[in-house]
Specification:
Number of strands: 12
Radius of gyration: 18 Å
Number of helices: 8
C-alpha cells in the first residue's frame, strides 16, 4: 500500500483529501506546517509527498528544496498559482508533478499513481551507460569519463530521460510532457535553455556536439560519440 504524506495547512482540504486518498487505497498521513511536514518526510519515508506551496511557516518552494537535499521521494506540488513560469520554476526545483487548485481527489490519485509508475521505471534501469556517460537513477548521479557531473535536478531528469532512449530523436513536446510535466507550447525555451546548460556540463556545444545532437525541426538525441 503506497504511503502518501500530505503537507497542507487548510484543515478542510486536508481532511477531505486524507479521507479520499485512504478510500483509494493509499496509507495517508498529513502535516499542517512546513516544519512538521519536513520531519515526517524524513522520519516516515513516504512513497509520495503532496506539497502545498502556501504554508504558514515557510514557502513551499523552500520546503521542496529542503526535501530534495535529503530525499528523492516523488513530490507532487499542489498550488493555486497557475502562472506558467511559476510552474516551470517549481518543476525545475525538483517537483515531479503539480496540480492546480481546485482539483478533485480522483485527479490527485491518478497523478500519484503516475509518479509511482515512473519511480518504478527508475528502479528497473538504475544504471544507464552511453559511451563515457554513466547515469545512476537511484542515486541520481551522473558522471562523464569517470568524473562526476554537477547537475541540477531538472538537468539530471533531462539527461536520464534521453539516456533511456539512446540514439532516438526525442521531440521538445515529449520532453515538456515527460520531464517538465507540462504541455505549455510556450515553454519550449526552457527546454532549449536546459539543453544548453547540459551541453556545457558535457563539454560540448550545439555547433560542435558529441553526445547531444539537435535534429533541426524535430528534436534532440543522445548518442554514443564512438559510434
Amino acid at each position: 500500500m503506497p504511503q502518501v504524506l500530505l503537507i497542507e495547512d487548510d484543515s478542510k482540504i486536508r481532511t477531505t483529501l486524507v479521507r479520499a486518498l485512504s478510500e483509494q487505497g493509499h496509507a495517508t498521513s498529513s502535516a499542517n506546517t512546513a516544519m512538521s511536514g519536513l520531519r515526517r518526510a524524513v522520519e516516515d519515508r513516504p512513497d509520495v509527498v503532496v506539497l502545498d506551496l502556501g504554508l504558514p511557516d515557510l514557502d513551499g518552494r523552500e520546503v521542496l528544496r529542503m526535501i530534495r537535499a535529503v530525499s528523492r521521494v516523488p513530490v507532487i506540488v499542489a498550488t493555486a498559482r497557475d502562472d506558467e513560469q511559476e510552474i516551470i520554476r517549481v518543476l525545475d526545483a525538483g517537483a515531479d508533478d503539480y496540480v492546480v487548485k481546485p482539483f478533485g481527489a480522483a485527479q490527485l490519485d491518478a497523478r500519484i499513481r503516475a509518479v509511482l509508475r515512473r519511480a518504478g521505471q527508475d528502479e528497473d534501469d538504475p544504471v544507464l551507460v552511453v559511451g563515457g556517460l554513466r547515469v545512476e537513477a537511484r542515486a541520481r548521479e551522473a558522471e562523464l569519463d569517470g568524473v562526476p557531473l554537477d547537475l541540477s535536478p531538472k538537468e539530471f531528469d533531462l539527461l536520464h530521460y534521453l539516456a533511456r532512449r539512446p540514439g532516438e530523436v526525442v521531440t521538445k513536446r515529449e520532453l515538456l510532457t515527460e520531464v517538465w510535466r507540462t504541455t505549455y507550447g510556450g515553454a519550449d525555451k526552457t527546454v532549449d535553455v536546459h539543453l544548453s546548460w547540459l551541453r556545457r556540463k558535457l563539454g560540448e556545444t550545439a555547433q560542435d556536439p558529441r553526445y547531444l545532437h539537435t535534429v533541426r525541426g524535430v528534436g534532440v538525441k543522445l548518442v554514443d560519440p564512438a559510434r
